[in-house]
Amino acid sequence: MQIEETTIQAPSAEPTRADIIKAVIEEIRPNLKRDGGDCELIGIEGSRVMVKLTGACVFCKLSSATLEGIQARLVEKLGELVRLIPVAGGAAARH
């Protein structure tokens, strides 16, 4: 009788880069929703993270400060420089 060795690979406990980016955006969304706005991840291309602000965030005078805060949080969590880019539509490919 031959015994086969099988290796069961446990799911990686390390979150992926995309998971971290999604988590940061999900973390900030309740605050935006409280003020009638929202932020949606549109796509990730290298060091560029495209997001779409909606609702009250679209015309808010503080939207640039909101984007800067999200970008700073992404840099902190990822440990690398990323650029948050606001987009008007959802045409970019999702990742």
From TrEMBL:
Residue stretches in coiled coil: none
UniProt-listed InterPro entries: FSCA_dom_sf, NIF_FeS_clus_asmbl_NifU_C
UniProt domain NIF system FeS cluster assembly NifU C-terminal: residue ranges: 21-83
MF (Gene Ontology): iron ion binding; iron-sulfur cluster binding
Swiss-Prot/TrEMBL GO biological process terms: iron-sulfur cluster assembly
Stored PANTHER family: IRON-SULFUR CLUSTER SCAFFOLD PROTEIN NFU-RELATED
Protein name: Fe-S cluster biogenesis protein NfuA
